Amino acid sequence: MADAAWVGGAEWAPRSILRTGHRPFTFDCEIVRVDPPHEVAWRGGGLGTTGTHVYRFLPHADGCLVQSDEVFEGLLVPVMRPLVRWYWGVHLRAFRDWCAARG
User: What is the spatial distance between Cα 99 and Cα 69, in angstroms, rounded to a whole number?
Assistant: First the structure.
């Protein structure tokens, strides 16, 4: 999500709009829940599919455990599932490595 951008409302506030996606596709998502520093959730979709993505930041002996959950609805879900699982695995491992490099 290197090109993520706010397109409406206050940043990290319920009902604000965040443009996210996986190149070449982008989606406008509505922030549906914010509970700093514990959780953020947004809902959006495209290509006949809608989804809700939740990030939870859980206490952990080494600092913080990031939990990512997604729920999708729509005709393309069976086709998208393997790609989405692969993408978020790569994304979260890169985030872990970025955090570890900064102590």
Answer: 20
**What is the rounded distance in angstroms from the CA atom of residue 27 to the CA atom of residue 45?**
6
Residues 78, 46, 72, 81: is their CA dihedral positive or negative? positive
CATH topology assigned to domain 5-101 = Alpha-D-Glucose-1,6-Bisphosphate; Chain A, domain 4 (3.30.530)
pLDDT digits (tens, 9 = 90+) for 9-65: 999 999 999 998 767 778 899 999 999 999 999 999 877 889 999 999 999 998 888
3-state secondary structure of 1: coil
In this predicted model, what pLDDT tens digit does every residue of 53-77 receive, in sequence order? 999 999 999 888 889 898 989 988 8
Residue with tokens 């699982």: 85
Tokens coding 73: 């609805």
pLDDT at 6 exceeding the cut of 70: yes
